[in-house]
Automatic annotation (TrEMBL):
SUPFAM superfamilies registered for this protein in UniProt: PP2C-like
Domain named PPM-type phosphatase: residues: 23-319
Bilayer disposition of the protein: Peripheral membrane protein
One term of GO molecular function: metal ion binding
Keyword Manganese: no
One GO cellular component term noted in the UniProt record for this chain: membrane
Record-given protein name: PPM-type phosphatase domain-containing protein
């Protein structure tokens, strides 16, 4: 079966929470994959009325995604840019900061500890046993949202995605999907130009024929040219930033890994979540996400072409 199980793991890890401004649900499911390599962050209070949410889809192992889960929010709070309210810059700073941390002795030791805790093995994935091997081979996408009392600021690197749902003005009050991120793929002209300037190439829509995304945290083997700034490496952690205002129109934000977006368009996800949130009145937001996962997971690997066979992680934030 290669990277897939013979029977999917449908058990879901879910959480819910709320404050005066919003409520959220978050769910992760391993599905058909041999291992679970996704993680997420849900922090209701980073101070000054700020909340923070993110989804981090690992590749080459779970280690970098787990490192991000355990370190990013706390490191973000300590940044001068965050403390001063420059949240666009703070998201850029924290992504590059994570890459720098992964290069340190501490970072490499943490990655090794995650590797030892996981069910993955070097023989299964072809990775070595040293901390250097793990630091260079593993990576993750990063799609994060800083939510202030008035704004949503999304920083995205990779092909996880954030989609804002707003009530449309048309009769019936349907939700309209507003994409707050771009899927960073190597074949995109701007991404391909950066990859080639850094000495790489794109083959079969993959960086050097291997990696099928062009921005990520980790993946240090693609960021090893010391003559090039981190933002200009073949693979860069530098996020694209998008902002939207927080409305009082029943809006909600979906942040999810590509395991969901391979199965649903942005509008389809908004329609599905919006219908359950507004019409079926699910007790918990995470129950809506669980229902969605059950709907889109593949019934079998062979006939699905891999669609619906990936790890699935999703966070939904509903504004009050």
């Amino acid at each position: 079966m290669g990277p897939y199980l013979t029977v999917p793991k449908r058990e879901k890890a879910s959480e819910d929470g709320e404050n005066a401004k919003l409520k959220y649900g978050a769910t992760g499911m391993q599905g058909w994959r041999n291992t679970m390599e996704d993680s997420h962050i849900a922090e209701l209070d980073l101070g000054n009325g700020i909340s923070f949410f993110g989804v981090y889809d690992g590749h080459g192992g779970n280690e970098v995604a787990d490192f991000v889960r355990d370190h990013l929010a706390n490191e973000l709070k300590q940044l001068a840019s965050f403390k001063s309210g420059d949240y666009d810059q703070a998201l850029k700073d924290i992504y590059l900061r994570i890459d720098e941390m992964l290069k340190t002795t501490y970072g490499k030791q943490k990655l090794m500890s995650y590797k030892k805790q996981s069910d993955s093995s070097a023989s299964l994935f072809g990775r070595g046993n040293s901390s250097e091997d793990v630091a260079f081979a593993a990576g993750c996408t990063a799609c994060s949202a800083i939510i202030t009392p008035t704004e949503i600021i999304v920083g995205n690197s990779g092909d996880s995605r954030a989609v804002l749902a707003r009530k449309s003005s048309t009769p019936g009050g349907k939700f309209t999907a507003v994409e707050m991120s771009v899927d960073h793929k190597p074949e995109l002209p701007e991404e391909k130009q950066r990859i080639e300037r850094a000495g790489g190439f794109v083959e079969d829509n993959r960086v050097k024929g291997v990696l099928n995304l062009s921005r990520s945290l980790g993946d240090l083997e693609y960021k090893s040219d010391s003559s090039i700034p981190l933002k200009d490496q073949m693979i860069t952690a530098m996020p694209e930033i998008k902002r939207e205002t927080v409305g009082k129109d029943g809006a909600f934000l979906i942040i999810a890994c590509d395991g969901i977006w391979d199965c649903l368009t942005s509008q389809e996800a908004v329609d599905y979540v919006g219908d359950l949130l507004t019409n079926k009145k699910r007790e918990k937001i995470s129950q809506t996400i669980e229902d969605m996962f059950d709907k889109i997971i593949a019934q079998d690997v062979a006939s699905s072409g891999g669609i619906g066979c990936d790890n699935m992680t999703c966070v939904v934030i509903q504004f009050k």
